[in-house]
Amino acid sequence: MSGLTHIDAAGEARMVEVGGKEVTDRVGVAGGTVLVAPATLALIRSGDAKKGDVLGTARIAGIMAAKRTHDLIPLCHPLALTSVKVDLACEADPPRVTVTATVKTSGRTGIEMEALTAVSVACLTVYDMVKAVDRSIRITDIRLLEKRGGKSGDWVADPAAP
Fold this sequence. Notes:
Mean pLDDT: 89
Shape: elongated
Low-confidence stretches: none
Order of helices and strands: EHHHEEHEE
Radius of gyration: 17 Å
Structural class: alpha+beta
Strand order of the largest sheet: 2-3-1-4-5
CATH topology: Alpha-Beta Plaits
Largest sheet: 5 strands, antiparallel
């Protein structure tokens, strides 16, 4: 049998039992990038996209997604989130929007999926809001950047890793 904890003795997928785990403060940080054309970045920065405020809408979408992760990802536990922060930044070289989500809870299980879901949905929202003017958009580099708390302890991604 594999080391995956979502597989039971019969080889079936299951939700992991976390009732016996200690409640700890947990933080998950994830990031992602939306690569766009220079003109698209200028449109996003200006706030003049036809669908409205791209960055503000993506921020709200990411927060909402983090809160609904258990509805979107099979076998995720519903968590009472204590904080969700989604930051979006426009950067010129290469033209892109970087998305970072920081999600916190006090609980018995990790928060990584909530952070990754927040970033994914925020990136998809940026894409959706400007796709009519830029078909070359690419969403890249969605990954966990940091996790704190829990039995396995703290972890930070190597910034040089792809």
